[in-house]
Amino acid sequence: MLLGLDHVTSFYGKTPILKDIGFDLHQGQCLCVLGRNGVGKTTLLRTIMGLTDRMTGDIQMSGANISTAPTHQRAKYGLGYIPQGRQILAKFTVKENILLGTFARSDGLGEVPPLCLSLFPYLAENLEKQAGLLSGGQQQQLAIARALATNPKILLLDEPTEGIQPNIVHEIGQTLRRLNTEFGITLILTEQHIKVARKLGDAFLMMENGRIVARGPIAEMTDELVERHMTI
Amino acid sequence: MPPSRLLKHKGRPRHAPDAQWRRGIGDVALGNSLSADIAPIANALILGLSIASIWLIAALGLAIIYGAIGVINMAHGEFIMLGAYTSYALQSFFGLPFLLCIPAAFIVVAFIGLLLERGLIRYLYKRPLDTLLATWGVSLVLTQLVRLTFGSDPKYIAVPEMFQSNVQLGFVNLSVLRIFVFALTIVLVAATAFLFYRTRFGMQVRAVMQNKEMAASFGINADRVYMLTFALGAGLAGVAGSLLGVLAIVLPTMGTAYVVQAFLVVVVGGGTILGSVVASGLTGEFQSVLAYVTNETFARFLLYLLIVVLLRFRPAGLFAPAKARR
Ligand SMILES: Nc1ncnc2c1ncn2[C@@H]1O[C@H](COP(=O)(O)OP(=O)(O)O)[C@@H](O)[C@H]1O
Ligand SMILES: [Mg+2]
């Protein structure tokens, strides 16, 4: 088991947003977290990164209990975070944004890892460009490159295809698939696009109001289930 | 009291060992051969540069702490004062040469800043108003502690022999001490800019400044960054203190005077390093030239007036990034 959550309840202020969440994730898996807006998908990823105000329960990563570790230490266990809205540092150059990821590495590499450049040729050609000037799709590539620069075991992707042109959605989907199958990086992915989830995922969690209401292999994610928990 | 005022301090005892050198920034002597027209203006401009360099050192640490952490450190003037007393104490009691007193003041005051950050400031990061009050309280305590330890009579730092001469630069005759202060200012600004823009630590600071959560998500310990930045800002104030101590007199209350100028520089400059450099240069020159045209007090009045007008139109300072302006 690579990552395990056990009875995790997570708070903003005094309000529990995630309630009693538990699941196991194995090396090489791609887990899709699904549900309507506001059910707690982002909060789940933020809880794993230690970015909520408080949590109870246990989070295990590679056999270590990281429930009380501060965010900057969790990053070093091998969590690469690609937040919703991408959160690129706009004043940094493309190169500086990628280098930001290297602070979470344990091998002390202080350069742009070659993988980041070979996966995203556009970034490789525009390393000195200010990141705030990139388009949405390019910023998403940069966010993925930055997370890859941490040399992660798990990538946490929060709606990576949100607000991105359809042709680039496909491209990003392919990149993620390569990272998962070719490089063996485990993925946790929140999605609104059922198609992307079905293509990439091999397991799913369906959320409603801060709780997991359905789970299983992706083949068991029936249209009926999607209808019930995802249509508005 | 502002620096130029202090330097003309009348109550200074006659037995001060190096009285004639304590004029520091006021001692521009011009060559005889020069035409009488340019001389006074050149004099004022050069005086402006020296005022600027002193304000800049004082402002640099303040700007770093404010820019990176968002804390307005009301005790910054007292860090300057502690730097001066550190140099004084090391020189008078342990005979440390002045050139070594400067780095020693950096280390001692940086360490005091570190203790203050760990013991107090870090608990207040989410409450800016409380930091203001707390650091103000600290400034009172520090002043009082120094008064109890060293007494409230003025102290002097001896100027090393090598600085007690003048050199001819073009048509202007400058004291070596002033050239040293000016050069050290350039070195400090360059070193600080290098640290912030060219090192991994500087990148961590700039990342935390932009987005603390993202910085943490990528392995940066923001707490440690704040601690080290605060210590660095304090250390710079310590260096400013040892230089001011040799140019002027050392008093428990000396910090209050300098910190007003330092705040002006930071506010006008908008809190960035480059902004502080330009702002200290501008305000220093303005003050000096206006003082030449009118007089010292009226010059300061005009300078403050100009700054108020400037802030009316540019509330975030001269060099604030466009989106921070309203
Ligand atoms: N910083 C916050 N403070 C308080 N409540 C929040 C915060 N962020 C999200 N929430 C609340 O938590 C719930 C889940 O939000 P979120 O995790 O963003 O949902 P999703 O990503 O599934 O759309 C929402 O009701 C939202 O209002
Ligand atoms: Mg979300």
Question: Can you tell me about this structure?
Answer:
The complex is a heterodimer of chains A (232) and B (326). With 232 residues, chain A is of the alpha/beta class. In chain A, 34% of the residues lie in helices and 28% in strands. Chain A contains nine helices and ten strands. In chain A, the strands form two sheets. A six-stranded mixed beta sheet of chain A has the order 6-7-8-3-9-10, sandwiched between helices. A four-stranded antiparallel beta sheet of chain A has the order 2-1-4-5, covered by helices on one side. The model of chain A has no long low-confidence stretch (mean pLDDT 95). Chain B has a domain at 56-259. Chain B has helices spanning 3-7, 38-69, 76-94, 98-119, 128-150, 176-198, 200-210, 212-217, 222-247, 254-269, 273-293, 296-313, and strands spanning 29-30, 166-169, 172-175. Chain B has a three-stranded antiparallel beta sheet with strand order 1-3-2. Chain B is globular. The A-B interface holds A 49, 51, 70-73, 75-76, 81, 83, 87, 89-92, 96, 99-101, 103-105, 110, 146, 150 and B 200, 203-204, 206-207, 210-211, 213-222, 321. Bound molecules: adenosine-5'-diphosphate (ADP) and magnesium ion. Residues 41-42, 84, 158 of chain A line the site of magnesium ion.
Which keywords apply here?
heterodimer; A: 232 residues; Rossmann fold; 4-stranded antiparallel beta sheet; 10 strands; 34% helix; B: 326 residues; mainly alpha; 3-stranded antiparallel beta sheet; binds adenosine-5'-diphosphate; binds magnesium ion; Urea ABC transporter ATP-binding subunit UrtE (chain A)
Secondary-structure element order of chain B, as H and E?
Answer: HEHHHHEEHHHHHHH
Please write the CATH class name of chain A. Alpha Beta
| Radius of gyration of chain A from CA coordinates | 17 Å
The rounded distance between the terminal residues' Cα atoms of chain B is 34 Å
Measured as a percent range, the helix fraction of chain B is 55-70%
Strand order of the largest sheet of chain B: 1-3-2
What small-molecule ligands were found?
Answer: adenosine-5'-diphosphate, magnesium ion
State which percent range the strand residues of chain A make up: 25-35%
- Interface with most residues: A-B, 25 and 18 residues
Structural class of chain B: mainly alpha
Distance between the termini of chain A: 35 Å
At CATH level 2, the architecture of chain A is 3-Layer(aba) Sandwich
The fourth-level CATH homologous superfamily of chain A is: P-loop containing nucleotide triphosphate hydrolases
Helix tally of chain A equals 9
Total helices of chain B: the number is 12
Give the CA-based shape of chain B. Answer: globular
Annotation, overall tally of beta strands of chain A? 10
Keywords (chain A): Amino-acid transport, ATP-binding, Nucleotide-binding, Transport
Protein name (chain A): Urea ABC transporter ATP-binding subunit UrtE
Organism (chain A): Methylocella silvestris
GO molecular function, one term (chain A): ATP hydrolysis activity
